């Protein structure tokens, strides 16, 4: 886990990239029904805008309240693993909520079927939560933490 605000920002940049790219691939796959190079290309080309949106939401909207909730429900003697799992879970839930809205608006801007906004958004929240939470806890979180600490050993990014 990051130990200061600068480490937290670098970690957030890395985690957002992994999560946005994976979830974009997942959503485009669900929409197209197949995994092809075209799906990969579409996810890659859509990455910059989705990444900027996710980074903004993570840093300015979700992170503070999510961490407050996480540390309110954690006992003071909680293990580091429990802290990581609780904070990650508290971050994923609101990010899925907001980024599912982002994806819904992106699709509806092309189809113009605005009357389906809440139906598509609700469906997207459920589909994305089923993928995002396990992916974050089991794959992205451990992978990004490992890479982050390899690139930036403790103490190399000072506050």
Automatic annotation (TrEMBL):
InterPro entries the record matches: DUF2798
Keyword DNA-binding: no
Protein name, UniProt field: DUF2798 domain-containing protein
Transmembrane segments: 9-30, 42-63, 84-105, 125-144
Pfam families per record: DUF2798
Keywords (A to Z) from UniProt: Membrane, Transmembrane, Transmembrane helix
Organism of this sequence: Enterococcus hulanensis
């Amino acid at each position: 886990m990051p130990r200061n605000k600068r480490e937290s920002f670098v970690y957030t940049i890395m985690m957002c990239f992994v999560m946005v790219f994976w979830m974009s691939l997942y959503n485009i796959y669900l929409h197209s029904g197949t995994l092809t190079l075209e799906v990969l290309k579409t996810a890659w080309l859509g990455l910059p805008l989705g990444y900027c949106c996710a980074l903004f939401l993570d840093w300015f909207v979700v992170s503070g309240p999510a961490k407050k909730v996480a540390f309110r429900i954690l006992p003071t003697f909680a293990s580091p693993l429990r802290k990581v799992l609780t904070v990650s879970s508290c971050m994923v839930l609101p990010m899925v909520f907001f980024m599912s809205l982002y994806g819904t608006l992106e699709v509806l801007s092309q189809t113009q079927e605005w009357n389906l906004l809440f139906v598509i958004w609700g469906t997207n929240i459920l589909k994305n939560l089923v993928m995002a939470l396990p992916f974050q806890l089991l794959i992205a979180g451990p992978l990004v933490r490992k890479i982050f600490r390899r690139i930036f050993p403790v103490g190399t990014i000072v506050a």
